[in-house]
Amino acid sequence: MREANERVVVLNNIPFMIDERKILRALRIPKINTLKEIPEEHISKGIKRAIEIAYSLIKGRACYRTFRIKEVDADRITIAESDRLFCGNNMVRLLKDCDYATLLICTIGNDMVEKVEELERMSLADAYYLDRVGAWMADFMAEQAN
C-alpha cells in the first residue's frame, strides 16, 4: 500500500517534444498534419518560428504531494493538514472512494508569457501562434507530470 508523502516532490526539466500535428489542431487547422502541407507559406513559417521560440523558452517543472484522506463529508474531503483543500461536490464525487489524494501543480515557466506579451506589440499573428503553442505545451506538461 502506498504511504502518504509528507514532502513535496519537485520535478525539474521535464523532457518534451513539440508535436506539429497537435499544434495545428490547437490552432484549429484541421486535416493538415505537417507545416509543409500548409499552402500559405507565411502561416507555415510563423508557426515554425513559434515552435522554435517555444523550444528555447519552455522550462517544464512540476511538484506534487500525496495526502492521506481522513474523512469524506458531504461537501469536502478532509485531510490532516486541512479541511478546505479539497472542497465541492466534484471533489467529493472524485475522491469519495479513495484513501489518498495527490495535489499536482505544473508549469512551463513564465518566459513564454513574457515573450507573447512582447510579440503582441509587434505582430499579433506571431503572438497568437506562440500563445497556442504555449497553451498546448502547458497541457502536455500536465500529462507528462501525471
Rg over alpha carbons? 20 Å
What fraction of the residues are assigned to beta strands by DSSP? 15-25%
Number of strands: 5
Overall mean pLDDT score? 90
Distance between the termini: 19 Å
Number of helices: 5
Order of helices and strands: EHHEEEHEHH
Shape: elongated
- Helical/strand content category: alpha+beta
Helix proportion range:
40-55%
Weakly predicted, low-confidence segments: none
The total domain count is 2
Largest sheet: 5 strands, antiparallel
Question: What's this model, at a glance?
Answer:
With 146 residues, the chain is α+β, with helices and mostly antiparallel strands. It has helices at residues 20-26, 41-57, 89-95, 111-120, 124-145; strands at residues 9-11, 61-72, 76-79, 82-87, 100-107.
Explained architecture:
The protein is an alpha+beta fold. It has two domains: 90 residues; 41 residues, no CATH class. The chain is built from five helices and five strands; from the N terminus they run βααβββαβαα. Strands 1, 2, 3, 4 and 5 form a five-stranded antiparallel beta sheet that branches. Helix 2 crosses helix 5 and helix 4 runs antiparallel to helix 5. The longest helix has 22 residues. 18% of the residues are buried. The model has no long low-confidence stretch (mean pLDDT 90).
